[in-house]
Amino acid sequence: MTSEEIRKKFLEFFRVREHTVVPSSSLIPDDPSVLLTTAGMQQFKRYFTGELDAKKDFGSLNTASIQKCFRTSDIDEVGDASHLTFFEMLGNFSFGGYFKEKAIEYGYEFITKDLGIAPDRISVSVFKGDSSTGSTSSLQAGSGQVIPRDDESFGIWHEKIGISKNKIGENGREDNFWGPTGSEGPCGPTSEIYVDGLEVWNLVFNEYYQKPDKTLEKLETLGVDTGMGLERLAMVVQNVPTIFETDLFQPLIQFLPANLSERMRRILTDHMRGIAFLISDGVWPSNKEAGYILRRLIRRLVTHLHLAGDTVDQTQIFVEVINLYGSFYPELNLNKERILEVFKEERARFKFTLQVGLKELNRVTSLDAKSAFKLYESYGLPYEILKELGGDKAIKLTREAFDEEFSKHKIISRMGAVKKFGGHGLILNTGELKAGDEAELKKVTRLHTATHLLHRALRQVLGDDVHQMGSDITTERTRFDFSFNRKMTPEELKKVEVIVNEKVKEELPVKFEEMTKEEAEKTGALHFFKEKYPEKVKVYYVGDSLKTAWSKEFCGGPHVTHTGEIGKIRILKEEAVGAGVRRLRATVE
Q1: Which H or E run contains 499?
Q2: Residues forming beta bridges with residue 10, ordered by sequence position
Q3: Would you list the DSSP string of 102-126?
Q4: Contact 92, 48 (CB under 8 A)
Q5: Which Pfam families does the record cross-reference, listed alphabetically (predicted)?
Q6: DSSP state of 141
Q7: Cis, peptide link before residue 558, omega less than 30° from 0
Q8: Is 587 helix (H, G, I), strand (E, B) or coil?
Q9: What is the pLDDT of residue 102?
Q10: If I label 312, which of 140, 146, 196, 242 is the partner at 20 to 30 A Cα–Cα?
Q11: CA separation for the pair 569, 496 (Å, rounded)
């Protein structure tokens, strides 16, 4: 059974069981508590807490998805038989529709009947409960709280499914209690399904909400959150010894030079996939956050292919990734040119200093954290490369020490930024908008109001199905994500640009009125559908009155007083972010 067949079988299994199939969200999450999307449940987090209504948004209390995921914590582990940075997570979710019994029944039925895995290959585990209140787990409940054994799951597995007691393991919080993504959120006991001793499916039963102080309280609505790694599942279904022998990796591994070690071929194959998906979802190489992760992957790939003799057309590598995954993730096809171009630019930039850096590395007699960070800072050689190529010289170099040097550097840089801003730091930081001085504040304010005009113009040109999916504004540009299922034509982009600049020339007033959320919704004001607004909101509008306004949106500001202050709006780029989501980048002149 191919990986493509597994994907189709999984989604169809849950579709016929009245689950709404939801497309994968972007690797760039709208959850500020995480850097990248690390689990299938992240796009559903606010449905588990009750902030959003699954029945309203999906037409069902139950959903299923195959989610693109990326975990930075595993970068140093990649190269063995099982660790990855990028992976696909199959999951089914319920927000009050069903709980443990159905989730366990579905899991066992899909594994044994639809995938044809023999029952005698299967074992499971459940949460054994807290033996005392003295747990040292980071998920420890508040003082005096004890989470009981999951007797219900044990009973379902043994009495209803028929798993013998000797095949039901019982573990503590470290293995069978799932914590929230971030400092707080839904959590609960888990039940894991194993095939031949390998964990393939984790069923999480959200019974509690973990607060920032780590105390737990019972959730009003019980939820199911499951996750099954496609790579591991393909391995057991296809009867191969490691994930790298599956059809998800073999076409890519065979493309790499034969003189690379098996470990390095695994690392680079993982990185090839990760690079393509990160760029496709809008990540750009940089020295911070997700951009830094992407840059590390690209530099590792470029370095080892350089050392192997540069016998491979490196851009062709990403054509292979797109060919392999593009049928299920069409955004790869849509962003093909961008993936190739971003990689080529970063490769060219890095290759310029790579050879000099490698020569300098050869000159160093020993590598400690300080000398390693100096090489990184001067030549862009990341920790992984320094550790791998340093050999005996890098024996005492550790990730922890290197990261400590990196942190010291960031503190020094931050002190410089504070000095630059006159000792006052940022004068504006709403998350979406940041400004360090009055000039920057003026620029981001112009861009912020320009974003409202772009939103309205997009709906005028493309139709009322266009909705805001996210935004980010710097002093250089605005980035606006919106729902739309195809690439905009050059004519459509030109129309949007003409419309917004006409509104700028009209010198329309920009005002706001404060009212209840219910009253604001009745005005027809646009708002971010995933945002949880307070009971009282501001509605900013462009025009003489709220009733006749050309544009009106829920917003906290700041804004210009009239559109003429914005200046000429210029659209820089339109691109795909994920399935059904486009991104517009624009600036003001």
Answers
A1: helix 490-505
A2: none
A3: HHHHHHHHIIIIIS---GGGEEEEE
A4: no
A5: tRNA-synt_2c, tRNA_SAD
A6: P
A7: yes
A8: strand
A9: 97
A10: 242
A11: 10
Query: How far apart are alpha carbons 512 and 544 in whole angstroms?
Result: 11
Amino acid at the residue 339: I
Cα Rg for the chain, rounded, in angstroms?
Answer: 26
Distance from CA of residue 206 to its chain's centroid? Answer: 21
The rounded distance, in Å, linking the Cα atoms of 99 and 204 is 10
How far is residue 44 from each of residues 10, 40, 54, 161, 252, measured CA to CA in Å? Answer: 19, 8, 9, 29, 32
Cα 380 to its chain centre, rounded Å, is 25
Structural domain spans, the chain: 3-132+146-245, 254-417, 438-588
Name the residue among 467, 466, 456 with its Cα closest to residue 495. Answer: 456
Q: Please say whether the structural domain 438-588 has been given the CATH code 3.30.980.10.
A: yes
In whole angstroms, give the CA distance from residue 440 to residue 428.
Answer: 9
Report the distance separating Cα 61 and Cα 222, nearest Å. Answer: 11
Average pLDDT value for residue range 396-403: 89
**Which fold is adopted by the domain 3-132+146-245?**
BirA Bifunctional Protein; domain 2 (3.30.930)
- Residue 270's H or E segment, with its range, is helix 262-280
How many secondary structure helices (H) and strands (E) does the chain include?
19, 18
Give me the chain's average pLDDT, please.
Answer: 87
| Single pTM value for the model | 0.69
CB atoms within 10 A of CB 116: 9
- Check: CB of residue 37 under 8 Å from CB of residue 72: no
Residue 340, Cα to own-chain centre: how many angstroms? Answer: 21
**Which pair of tokens denotes residue 331?**
């955004």
| Spatial separation of the C-alpha atoms in residues 78 and 498, rounded to whole Å | 49
CA-CA distance, 247 to 327, in Å (whole number)?
14
Q: How far apart are CA 310 and CA 113, in angstroms?
A: 47
Q: What is the rounded distance in angstroms from the CA atom of residue 364 to the CA atom of residue 350?
A: 21
Arithmetic mean of pLDDT, 581-587: 90
Which tokens sit at 351?
Answer: 């290759």
The 3-state DSSP class for residue 332 equals helix
| The pair of three-digit structure tokens given for residue 432, joined into one six-digit string | 């979406």
Lowest mean pLDDT among 197-211, 231-245, 417-431, 524-538: 417-431
Type of residue at 200: V
DSSP class of residue 472?
E
Q: Is 498 helix (H, G, I), strand (E, B) or coil?
A: helix
The β-bridge partners of 540 are: 512, 553
The pair of structure tokens assigned to 275 is: 């690079």
Enumerate the β-bridge partners of residue 166. Answer: none
Round to whole Å and give the CA distance between 584 and 482: 8
End-to-end Cα spacing for the chain: 55
Q: Which of 177, 174, 176 is nearest to 124 (CA)?
A: 176
